[in-house]
Structures
1.
Amino acid sequence: MKTGTFSDLETVMKKDPKPVIIHLYTDWCSVCKMEKHALNKDKEIVDLINENFYMVNFEAEKTKEKIQFQGREFEYLPNGNTGIHELALALSKNKDQPVYPLWIILDRNLNLVYYHEGLVIPEKIKQRLLEISAL
């Protein structure tokens, strides 16, 4: 799957607005790894995402750079040996500790159209992606 960064997003959205998928994960999350493998194996999902969406994979606990998103600046919040990015907390409905993986899909105007915490089933996400890409 083709992925970009939050800093790329503003530029590409000005040129060619498309819905945006934000996938929050951590490198310690075994469900995230299983899900990534299952989704990458599904050529139909990969093609659907590559053709109709911008995708940002966001490692919520290791990304340390400042991120500009929707007119605000977000920073990494260290907490001893670990930490979490402010943007992960802002995007999550669970403000204490996001549930991973977390899927957020925004329409081409960056309005929330889909929110899912935990494992996604390839068939279900494919159906949602088809619905959203048709908007």
2.
Amino acid sequence: MTDAWGTVTAVDGQYAYLRMDESGCGRCRQPGGCGGNHLGPLWCGSPRTFRVLNPDHCDVGARVQVTVAEGSLSRSVLYAYTSPLLALFAGALSGSACGGEAGAIGGAMGGLLVGWLGLRRAQRQSQHDPRLQISIRS
């Protein structure tokens, strides 16, 4: 499991809105940590808020531990980087074979679009999979 800490900012029925207190995994000073927690504020100036199931009925202001299933983060990153890149290369190669340089440019753009659309479709399909959802750890 990948864990981080957040604070409940609002409660809506069975859901809670969480403001994440950390912008990384929290391993910045540990061996193997990337130091991303220091870079997070540069790109995410405003606090990130997420809507998650609230099975423990935590109240507003409660500090909770948030967890994501083991491996789901690394799989998501792998797919997000490799799918569009491979689609871009495949489109450029096929476009180059059909139409030279102009075909390669068009094929690369088309491949990138196909890769992006594939990621969007995969995101929509996995959006309701409980194994991939963020949850509050008791």
3.
Amino acid sequence: MQLISVFPLMSKSAHAENAQEFPIQADDGAPVQNFRIPSELDPAILPGIVWNGRESADVILYEFFDYNCAFCRKAAHEIEAIRVKDSDLRLGLINNAILSIGSIQAAKVQQAILKLRGPQVAYDFHVRMFATHGQSNGASAIGIARDMGLDVRKVEETADSSVVTDVLSRQTQLAANLGMSMTPSFVIAGIGILGWPGVKALQSIIANSSKCDHPVCGDKN
């Protein structure tokens, strides 16, 4: 697999450092950085999102992640458990492959599978990637594709295409423009959330977004 770098040029972030649009607390009590997303930077405009959950769901949660991010691994397990129980949640996965070349390689395989087999198979690949241990890279990603019974020759060929490289460039560039400097980070109800807040905090954010279209209901101040 070719090593085509898609690391974005860092640009001015969409929020101030340590911003807190809403008083969100992580499971450990720490404040969670969060900020309003400009309408022109709505993640819905991106190509290559791996969707899971029904299109008519009340709440859409976007996750920006890296396949070599330890907290993303934990988040993948916890979010899947939430999603299985909550039919009103739709998850959109967006690559922010910034930690290593291996992260880029794995993301390229994911995008190839999405293009060849659609979102359900790509989501299955995603879950399997985070169920394995060790560094994620092209070899480990192709190994999972092989275990899934996919045509690895077609997967590798598609992964190395300019179309896939362009999609990943656009995804990581948007993450940079939004100031998504942590993995994972999230967008929900028009609010960006930096870092993994913990499963209880995330469940509260999702419930509030369904109830009042904000991550915190009532007077945010």
4.
Amino acid sequence: MRNLDVDVMLVNEAPKNPVVWKRRCVACADRWGLRMVTGGRPAGSNLILTAPSVVVESAASKRVRQPLFQPRRGIAWAQLRTGGRLFGVVSCHLSLDPRRRLHEATQVLAAAQRLRGPVIIGGDLNEPPSGPAWQRLRAGGFVDHGDRSWLTFPADEPTKRIDALLVRGAAQVIHHGHPGVSPALLARGSDHRPVVLEVEL
């Protein structure tokens, strides 16, 4: 994945051990030649990483309350600038519970409202594009430019597209979908396949 030369990477299920989560998140960023901006345990398990050339105007995260014994969930967001142009990103990982997903999608939109310029929402939505959480995000002005043939879960033999990168605002989408890496390599790093988005601001 290093050959992609990314400006921003949104990570789900980042390290969240209460003692060492931050050190491991920073190590994860270092491994990709990026820097940790926000997220990790305070954001459930979402993480925003950026290239050193990207200016961070502001960044924040919040934990989203879950029923007892349910996985940690949260949202991370950042106001960024590159080439003198502002843009925002939101990283999320929605619940397995359909009712909670819809509630969380509304909170994701609230985070996106804090950001200026084009905004990109990325994450594991845990449902296909026809689901209500996707519809809620579309109703908030976000557009799915995804390649419908690029399925993301499970990584070894994917049958579903449940991971999204949605765009709102003045950004021209050049490519959305396949990262250009062999399926055998993709299946080694995660139980999901990554999604790549190339935009021109």
